[in-house]
Amino acid sequence: xxxxxxxxxxSRTVLNAPISLFxxxxxxxxxxxxxxxxxxSSGAWHSVPVNxxxxxxxxxxxxxxxxxxxARNLRANPSARLRLGxxxxxxxxxxxxxAEKLPILKSYIDRWGGVTHSxxxxxxxxxxxxxxxxxxxxPVFRITx
Length: 145
What we know:
Blueprint: H1 9-25, E1 33-38, E2 45-50, E3 53-55, E4 58-62, H2 69-76, E5 79-84, E6 87-95, H3 102-120, H4 128-134, E7 140-144
Antiparallel strand pairs: 1-2, 1-5, 3-4, 4-7, 5-6, 6-7
């Protein structure tokens, strides 16, 4: 899995920076929280804003930009932290097989597709075939904890 849509200046500066700041202060914009993962090479902790998804009693992390650094780090060390303000929880992530991703990706895109559909490379309201076509390059992790 090598597909990765690198965020541009606008995403990093105008979108992610304020979302990260608000999440650190305890204000969640559209469900955003800070994910902290241990670097697979450095061992240093890295943080990034994510939108945890709740679906059918389970929680998931979806990487709409593909095989991101945080997804690679989470594969190498499935123990991570989710934080919103001072509330922090330790989670354990298990990668979801491609065959099980369709309802998760569909729900994620339904919820945040206005912002993220282009990261996936699908239309704003994709059908099941479009979503199934990107499942192999869209990491999804079931999280517990």
